[in-house]
Amino acid sequence: MAKKGNRVQVIMECTEHKESGLPGTSRYITTKNKKNTPDRLERKKFNPILRKVTVHREIK
Length: 60
Fold this sequence. Notes:
With 60 residues, the chain is mainly beta. Helices cover 10% and strands 48% of the residues.
């Protein structure tokens, strides 16, 4: 029998891309454990449109 987990899928969106005014978005999908990290995730990920590593924050 499968365990009921606390892991949920989250969408991470680039914070610098919104301010740049360029079309498109940079988003990543990942999972997190809600029990261990109840607040929003913040990670440095590669943005292919800006072609550099930027801060991505969890949305929703």
